[in-house]
Amino acid sequence: MYFTHADPVWNAHPRLRAVTLAVDGVLGTTSGHESGRERREALTARVEERLAAASESAMPEIAAWREAFSRMGLKPTQYRCASEALLRRYRKERNLPGFHPLVDYLNVVSMAFANPIAVFDCDKVTDGITVRHADGSEVHRTFQGETEHPAPEEIVFTDAAGHAHSRRWTFRQSALSVVSKETDRALIVAEALHPTAAEDLAALERELTAGLPEAGVRIVASRMIDATDRRLEFSYARADEETP
């Protein structure tokens, strides 16, 4: 499988950086152990500090996504990147609903670093994912069970079968590949556009490489994506190849 951004995305957003991790063992993900609670508490404290220091729109990480959305012709107050949406909800409610241990952990990491993080069930992805401009033929499944076709030139996460696994880049994921209780293999993608994206994503990657194994998740492959290294290639061992 693979993950990459198409050249026109790089041309339009040269500051783009991403951290990508292919993982398995998601079926065994836990969140109730002591080290996991301590990690979540530390991340939540960082979220509280971030919210106390600035509004979402004043955070450089969020401001860069707002600028990108504006350049794509989208109203940034109508279509918010995933990390801004999480931070705004948490500021209001001081809590987030639980979905899945892996998703819940990644949501806290996303808020702590103010960078959007997507996670896809790899068994629902055909061959791999390319972040590119849509041509209008792609199919997106909403969480209400509806089918949509992204507008031409909208940036989407799409696979070889034409499934749009996200809409408006980092705005909303597809219900097709969302992590569920049946998910065991997943692709995690964190993206950033702000001036210190490389340094901040390196810190985010350190958090994930420490936190994921603690939760019982195995990292199969990872890569820091930039303009000179644009593609992650990864594969999973077949069941008959795995050691007992």
UniProtKB/TrEMBL annotation:
Pfam family, one: B3_4
PANTHER family linked to this entry: CYTOPLASMIC PROTEIN (PTHR39209:SF2), PTHR39209
SMART domains with a match to the protein in the record: B3_4
SUPFAM superfamilies given in the database record: PheT/TilS domain
Lineage of the organism: Bacteria, Bacillati, Actinomycetota, Actinomycetes, Kitasatosporales
Name of protein: B3/4 domain-containing protein
Coiled-coil stretches: none
Entries under InterPro entries matching the protein: B3/B4_tRNA-bd, Phe-tRNA_synthase-like_B3/B4
